[in-house]
Specification:
The complex is a heterodimer of chains A (434) and B (204). Chain A is of the alpha/beta class. Helix content of chain A is 22%, strand content 26%. Chain A folds into three domains: 10-102 and 180-197 and 361-427, FAD/NAD(P)-binding domain, CATH 3.50.50; 115-168, no CATH class; 200-358, FAD/NAD(P)-binding domain (3-Layer(bba) Sandwich). Chain A contains eight helices and 24 strands. In chain A, helix 1 runs parallel beside helix 2 (60-72) and helix 5 (218-225) packs parallel to helix 6. Chain B is an all-alpha fold. Chain B folds into two domains: 3-111, Alpha-helical ferredoxin (Fumarate Reductase Iron-sulfur Protein, Chain B, domain 2), CATH 1.10.1060.10; 115-200, no CATH class. Chain B contains twelve helices and no strands. The chains are: A alpha/beta (434), B mainly alpha (204). Chain A binds chain B through residues 206, 252, 256-260, 294, 319-324, 337-341, 344, 346, and chain B through 34-38, 40-42, 46-47, 52, 54-55, 85-90. The structure holds flavin-adenine dinucleotide (FAD) and iron/sulfur cluster (2 copies). Residues 14-20, 37-40, 45-47, 50, 53-54, 84-85, 193-196, 218-219, 222, 267, 271, 274, 360, 363, 367, 393-395, 399-402, 404 of chain A line the site of flavin-adenine dinucleotide.
């Protein structure tokens, strides 16, 4: 008897961020059948929430646009949004995947005209602005959203708001009786591109993220700088809406720390260096950025960017991990206390806004993964022990976009090998023997 | 210079880091320090010391033996544990501070007249005699450590507190006559002698 594993040729990619899109497209463009399952209502992942990319300071929309164009042109790729993997069984080459698809309440007829949003009164914290602002409960996730279709938040279903939305839609796109579905799929290989999440800054007690309005995270700062963000691109601080001009960046907030994340998150040094340039962009020579760091880790060619920022007179570097932050009551400013390592001087520096360069944690921490998935000490995914599932992008390691895309391409190649071998049993080790 | 000190210098030459690693309690953690500065900034007394933990650890690596062992800083540690809680490398900083102080004491390099050191010595001598702390004798020893006249002055100044303690049964004037003891004083003394012997045989 021939030891055939299975014949399933389909490849599943979980997570539709830049890595998942890349892995799915690379495989689909090689002629493989691919299903891309994204949990959110849109593809794009966290890069869509960045203002600009280091090191070229280009807009993330540009890379997303190219990928979306490739995606629309490809017939081998099927995109499922609001789809979550709830179970995976089987082995390499022959998995059965259970997906739960939540209702969007909006069908293909939607033209993204936005009439429904105008009549819905309920507001919800906007997850695509890291909850910094509110959005109507009928919304388009963001300008680059794919699919370009509105979503109704489940909280208005069964309320007059839902009926109003339905009545406002001229295209019959709103279907209030849509139900959650569970689908089962056969796939040969799985790529986990579930990405990362920012470390919970409130856990870093001495920095008071949960106590001080003007202590924010780096991901929130990206939204402040973005013209599509809650402040229209102005660097306004949360406590009083005042323009923040003297900004502190605290590195390794939650990373390289046995009490929090053990690993170096690898991108946050570059992210802060980039963000000092947002301050320059906003105020020219008038802005002040101060970076508090243990050591700056701008890996290989990114070192050039660091050198450039070092030359910038508006940016000051202080080699010190800040010990604690105190509130200056009258001004709502913050006072950073610590001792610097170059000379052991004690400081108490006042800033009007503090940005915590929070670490990257695997998004998959906290979700149910297949039992034989192998992860590192921090939870970043390597792959399954049977060699049929792979980690890709920021799900596999804290990576910047460039490296995430490389990792996704590598994962696609490995997944292609799995389904390729599956289709030709003689290629499977021992498979030709009887 | 005492024998222990002479022997240590001969043993370790200029490798003070190794000396600390092998001879100071928890000293093997020192090389884990990444010089981030959090301990220095977190110490509530930090601005009162000459050498913060961060600085001491760097001085150890730089081989500044004399400066480290004669420093007064590790004697100032109040064991608040702020630094241990925050150190991203989980160094047992408080314990290293006490380890360094103890080592400097053994080599007789600790600063003379350092109050923490004096009190620790009085406390220890008081304790080992009977296996119990004689609080009355301990307080008196503290009052009189800087001479008789100063002792009288101290005792008068603390009179009200002392009477309060007596009233609350926290201090027994009869303790002056030898005081309470543990059951097996000889056992305690043998135990301490054994511990000393073990320590003397330790590496280094
Ligand atoms: C402050 C900051 C600034 C940054 N700036 C830059 C920069 O300027 N340049 C740069 O190169 N990099 C930057 N990065 C890094 C960049 O964000 C990452 O490299 C990039 O997001 C990785 O993409 P990804 O697709 O691997 O993960 P993500 O962007 O996290 O995408 C993962 C996707 O998977 C989905 N998903 C998660 N779990 C599931 C599930 N169970 N089922 C289905 N779908 C799921 C998510 O909804 C998401 O859409 C920055 C990072 C930070 C923190
Ligand atoms: S990249 Fe920089 S800020 Fe981020 S954890 Fe590493 S050293 Fe710290
Ligand atoms: S907090 Fe820890 S790692 Fe940082 S300087 Fe102090 S001992 Fe070293």
């Amino acid at each position: 008897m021939t030891a055939t594993i299975a014949t399933n040729q389909t490849l599943l990619v979980v997570g539709g961020g830049i890595s998942g899109m890349t892995a799915a497209l690379e495989a689909a463009e090689c002629g493989k059948q691919v299903i891309l399952a994204e949990r959110n209502a849109t593809l794009g992942g966290r890069t869509a929430l960045l203002y600009r990319y280091f090191p070229k300071m280009c807009h993330p929309t540009c890379g997303l646009e190219i990928n979306l164009r490739r995606l629309k042109a490809n017939r081998n790729l099927r995109v499922l949004t609001q789809a979550e993997v709830t179970a995976i069984s089987g082995t390499r080459g022959n998995y059965t995947v259970t997906l739960k698809i939540s209702p969007r309440y909006v069908n293909n007829n939607c033209t993204a005209c936005g009439e429904c949003a105008k009549v819905v009164e309920t507001e919800i914290p906007d997850p695509y602005q890291y909850n910094l602002s509110q959005t109507h409960a009928a919304y388009l996730p963001h300008a680059m959203a794919y699919p370009q279709r509105y979503v109704l938040d489940p909280c208005i279903i069964g309320t007059p708001d839902a009926d109003k939305a339905k009545a406002a839609c001229k295209y019959g796109a709103i279907e209030l009786d849509m139900q959650a579905e569970t689908v089962e799929l056969k796939v040969g290989a799985v790529i986990w591109a579930t990405g990362w999440k920012p470390y919970d800054a409130a856990k870093i007690q001495p920095y008071g993220y949960d106590r001080f309005d003007n202590v924010i995270t780096s991901v929130e700062f990206e939204r402040l700088a973005d013209p599509h963000g809650p402040t229209g691109g102005k660097l306004l601080r949360p406590s009083d809406g005042k323009e923040a001009r003297n900004i502190a960046f605290i590195q390794c907030a939650g990373s390289r720390d046995e009490n929090h994340l053990r690993h170096c998150s690898r991108i946050c040094c570059m992210a802060s260096l980039k963000q000092t340039q947002y301050v320059r962009e906003a105020y020219g020579e008038e802005g002040r950025s101060t970076v508090y760091y243990i050591d700056i880790r701008s890996i290989d060619r990114l070192e050039d960017f660091y050198r450039k920022v070092q030359q910038d007179p508006t940016v000051k570097f202080i080699k010190s991990k800040v010990a604690n932050i105190k509130l200056h009551e009258e001004s709502s400013d913050l006072i950073l206390h610590g001792v610097d390592t170059e000379g052991y001087h004690r400081y108490a520096e006042q800033h009007d806004l503090v940005v915590l360069a929070v670490g990257m944690e695997p998004e998959s921490n906290g979700i149910q993964l297949p039992a034989d998935m192998v992860a590192d000490a921090s939870g970043f995914l390597e792959g399954s022990a049977d060699g049929g599932q792979f980690g890709a992008g920021a799900a596999s390691s804290p990576l910047d976009v460039n490296r995430a895309v490389q990792s996704a391409t590598a994962a696609a190649l490995r997944a292609i090998q799995v389904v390729h071998k599956t289709s030709r049993p003689e290629l499977v080790e021992g498979g030709a023997k009887s | 210079m005492n024998d222990l000190n002479r022997q240590a210098i001969a043993n370790y030459k200029n490798d003070f880091l190794r000396e600390v690693e092998e001879r100071v309690e928890d000293g093997d953690w020192v090389r884990m320090c990444m010089q981030c500065g959090v301990c220095a900034g977190s110490c509530p007394l930090g601005n009162a010391w000459e050498h913060t933990p961060q600085k001491l650890f760097m001085m150890i690596r730089a081989g500044k033996r004399e400066e480290v062992l004669s420093s007064d800083s590790m004697w100032m540690c109040t064991s608040c544990y702020n630094c241990i809680v925050r150190c991203p490398r989980k160094l047992p900083i408080t314990h290293i501070m006490h380890g360094l102080a103890h080592y400097a004491h053994k080599l007789n390099m600790a600063p003379k007249g350092q109050p923490t050191r004096d009190i620790a010595k009085l406390f220890w001598d008081n304790l080992v005699k009977t296996g119990r702390v004689n609080e009355l004798k301990f307080s008196l020893a503290m009052y009189f450590k800087d001479g008789f006249m100063q002792g009288i002055r101290n005792a008068l100044a603390m009179q009200a507190v002392g009477m309060g303690l007596v009233k609350a049964k926290r201090l027994n004037p009869m303790e002056i006559l030898g005081g309470h003891k543990c059951k097996d004083q000889g056992g305690i003394h043998r135990m301490i002698a054994k511990a000393r012997a073990i320590e003397a045989h330790k590496k280094g």
